[in-house]
Design goal:
By secondary structure, the chain is an alpha+beta fold. Helices cover 14% and strands 19% of the residues. A hairpin with a 5-residue loop joins strand 1 and strand 2.
């Protein structure tokens, strides 16, 4: 599934800062299926 227009992810860095990214590769990381077999995604 391709990321939609305007999708972003926000990650907490090791030093506590937040970083937002609209990079499609980063968004795709959070679109993986849930590990318990649920069809919902993390995004």
């Amino acid at each position: 599934m391709n990321p939609g227009v305007g999708e972003i992810v926000i990650a907490r860095l090791p030093d506590g800062r937040l970083q937002a990214s609209a990079n499609p590769a980063h968004v795709a990381l959070f679109r993986q299926p849930d590990t318990n077999g649920n069809t919902k995604t993390f995004a």
